[in-house]
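Consider the following assembly input.
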Amino acid sequence: MNTNVPIFSSPVRDLPRSFEQKHLAVVDAFFQTYHVKPDFIARSPGRVNLIGEHIDYCDFSVLPLAIDVDMLCAVKILDEKNPSITLTNADPKFAQRKFDLPLDGSYMAIDPSVSEWSNYFKCGLHVAHSYLKKIAPERFNNTPLVGAQIFCQSDIPTGGGLSSAFTCAAALATIRANMGKNFDISKKDLTRITAVAEHYVGVNNGGMDQATSVYGEEDHALYVEFRPKLKATPFKFPQLKNHEISFVIANTLVKSNKFETAPTNYNLRVIEVTVAANALATRYSVALPSHKDNSNSERGNLRDFMDAYYARYENQAQPWNGDIGTGIERLLKMLQLVEESFSRKKSGFTVHEASTALNCSREEFTRDYLTTFPVRFQVLKLYQRAKHVYSESLRVLKALKMMTSATFHTDEDFFTDFGRLMNESQASCDKLYECSCIETNQICSIALANGSFGSRLTGAGWGGCTIHLVPSGANGNVEQVRKALIEKFYNVRYPDLTDEELKDAIIVSKPALGTCLYEQ
Amino acid sequence: MDYNKRSSVSTVPNAAPIRVGFVGLNAAKGWAIKTHYPAILQLSSQFQITALYSPKIETSIATIQRLKLSNATAFPTLESFASSSTIDMIVIAIQVASHYEVVMPLLEFSKNNPNLKYLFVEWALACSLDQAESIYKAAAERGVQTIISLQGRKSPYILRAKELISQGYIGDINSIEIAGNGGWYGYERPVKSPKYIYEIGNGVDLVTTTFGHTIDILQYMTSSYFSRINAMVFNNIPEQELIDERGNRLGQRVPKTVPDHLLFQGTLLNGNVPVSCSFKGGKPTKKFTKNLVIDIHGTKGDLKLEGDAGFAEISNLVLYYSGTRANDFPLANGQQAPLDPGYDAGKEIMEVYHLRNYNAIVGNIHRLYQSISDFHFNTKKIPELPSQFVMQGFDFEGFPTLMDALILHRLIESVYKSNMMGSTLNVSNISHYSL
């Protein structure tokens, strides 16, 4: 596996599939806007998560894949004394933006109180700038970054990793523009710096999106691990006898803007799982480590609790190393402990009850857990969230085990077995993590009734995209699933959709290549 | 939170940027270089610095060179600066003590500039109510849109609190308490601190600035002026000890005539709500308490705003909300109400709103400039938007004007008057006087 972000250049050869048609269009659009040709294009794909939702920020592994839709940033470098960035979006709903770069080499200010599309570019620019200051401090500590004209074009649906792909492409574009053609950045570095990019707009996320976008490989799913070190391992799908494996990605068209709903959804879940980890640690008298390097884990997480528990009670001083058999055993134990600790409070914990469970005052609890990101809630549902995280992590290991060692008597065995895990994941997301919505559930029901073997939400949820495991090829069900979704969901829920919109709402995809550069 | 969404229309206008002339921008020191300049830098498509004035032209020339203001000209006299047609907006960022003597002739000279549309003055407007009223009249006669930097109104926490109150999340307000710490007015004075801020009459003190910004924020959040007030002002620390940068005493005592304590009580016009407020000077005690607390109690919930210093307008606050509100389901745009919303209408909702990376010193001024730009370019496509408006009052949109400043100055004048007379004053007409 190549460890560096790949670079392609003309003449056109071996381009990733999804890029072949689009790069010409974005160059044309760039020329129409700025009347010059771009120097390069930074590309980052969207992603779907096969299984393993909302466990990455607890440092559990996930099984995503990059898909055939992407964010393209075409860039023309400007060598000016007063450098500025001009951003144009192919979608006219997102207005052009222009801002100057600080002349003294300080960081661009990002206002986290405003929901604004160019802020995601600024996040990518910020983390790239931070990286450049580390690798070349004499050059970047006191002088500005170079200016640029940038055209941004994307067909990634909301919920399909759009914001993460944008920050990855923006970071890569910034590094390429400032370090020149011959500089190679490793996938590991790009993933590491972009994993925290969205924190600068107040969105707390875990890094899985960025890892998938960067590490994606054609025809492979990725097994993304966060501990002990961030690592993405491609796994080829099993070779089946009479079918191919395809994924139908159906967009609910419910737009859950991560920034605006974070206080009741995403940010709140992060706090709930953190509080759950600390409540378990208090109950079983173990100390959770504090990871200062990663602001997601300042107060420990559910994986930390698992490791601490096994160190104290099972004499396993070494943290879990990712081994499948050991992991399954430990996760089953964790689920047992969650039942023992939280099942009497399935209706949720008030602030008073949560602080009591942590042996601290309400004021300490509020200061330590609630002021990191905006949040809004009635009760903290520690039982449901902890159970989801551990059981979902268990399903990921079972899925990986299935992909690596199982043999199937018939193709249907694979589809049935893998599909069951996906369906269990959807049930857990809906009932325990409460990140589904009516539209997601409707789409899953319709797909399952018409040929999908596994259907679930993908991405953060609360709208966005769904993913469906469907046999393709001569005997496949892809077209059947598509038609059923159109007739029973889209025509009912969104009767005014145009054919173009329908085409964009349902994507049939195989795994795609990750982030790359295309030199003009 | 609709009010914090950026306009969906372009803020890269097809028209030319607003050309800004500064009185008081110095690259080496001062408030403008820390706040106004970085704010404008983030809005470079909408604002461009084209002129600088300082009594010593060398200061302006050095600033232009250091900041690389390639479009800016240094002017030797106030008259030539004010007369220049290269300026659309003038920003006054100098000591309050000089406001009157600079702004009055500037407005007169500016009659030679047909392009002047905006006058932006730092709070406080001037040293006294009389001066503030004179400036207000002169600006109104000159015919410019005015802005006062009561930038706390643009804080995302204040806007969120205002939103929660206006949408009924705390029901009707029944009481309010404020406690704050005003910083420089205690037993010690840094030797580098400018002398004028410790002398009464220069327009900068615990009442005009610390109390002024905070009480304006309170009125704005609650959408109410006061009906009655009672205040006591103290100068219990008439001498201060000088200290160096490391906090060591220099053995020298200097006089202080500005107040170090304020006790303020009042009732809001809306709902006859009692408000109690105390401010004190001195070194903040970070270990034991917050140095700014605003508590707003309602029939259905409570709001608390906390800050590390008594300057709400430049602090990264934390907003806490706790309360009940029926039929409150968080919905994504266009989403139908879920069958099982997961919210129990009878249970208490808790919200904690804090943005860890928000730089309030620059951010609130930046959002003020953004509002000016939105107004100038009509980025929200408001039909028949007037070219000028008199005051923001309690609107979410727009920006505070000299009329808003004048109303606040009247309240502050009443604080001193109440202290002197030792009586409760009726201030319910404070926003009604015509000039």
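Chain B has two domains: 1-148+357-400, 152-333+340-355. Ask yourself how this observation constrains the way the partners meet.
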